[in-house]
Design brief:
Layout lengths: L9 H11 L3 H16 L4 E5 L3 E5 L3 E7 L4 E5 L22 E5 L7 H22 L2 H11 L1
Antiparallel strand pairs: 1-2, 2-3, 3-4, 4-5
Length: 145
């Protein structure tokens, strides 16, 4: 009987994607990835939709993709996030998603990106608390007192 092929981790698949992109897009995606992972130690890397890096913590934070002329970083709940540094420059008319399109030569504001990632995590955690049953919220409240 044939053994099933070992399943590669999402992080390994993202490593391969970055290595395969030998131009500026690979470097840009690697820099974006590093900033996202540095924003919070509990962020999880996932591989979805037939080849897209996804970063999550208590829900989806962002999806990254390399296109022919840009690297696109889409935030799942971007419309609900404060963006004081004006990083979002695409998808501004959508109901939920907002994106950052990075083109060749663009400089990434890593501090602002990390702040945006942290805001997305806060949003996800707030959303989870609202979904929790009332008894669970009451228990949490008692523990904090």
């Amino acid at each position: 009987m044939k053994k099933p092929a070992p399943v590669e981790s999402a992080s390994a698949l993202i490593d391969k994607l970055v290595a395969k992109l030998t131009d500026w897009r690979g470097k840009t995606l690697a820099t974006v990835r590093e900033s996202i992972l540095e924003a919070d130690r509990e962020i999880i890397e996932e591989w979805k939709w037939m080849g897209s890096p996804v970063w999550s913590r208590d829900g989806m934070i962002a999806v990254g993709n390399a296109h022919k002329d840009k690297v696109k970083l889409m935030f799942a709940h971007g419309a609900d996030l404060a963006d004081p540094d004006k990083l979002f420059n695409a998808g501004l008319g959508g109901n939920a998603w907002r994106a950052i399109d990075l083109f060749e030569g663009d400089k990434i504001n890593e501090r602002a990106l990390k702040n945006l990632v942290r805001a997305a995590i806060d949003y996800n955690q707030t959303k989870l608390k609202k979904k929790a049953p009332a008894r669970t919220r009451a228990k949490e409240h008692k523990r904090k007192q």
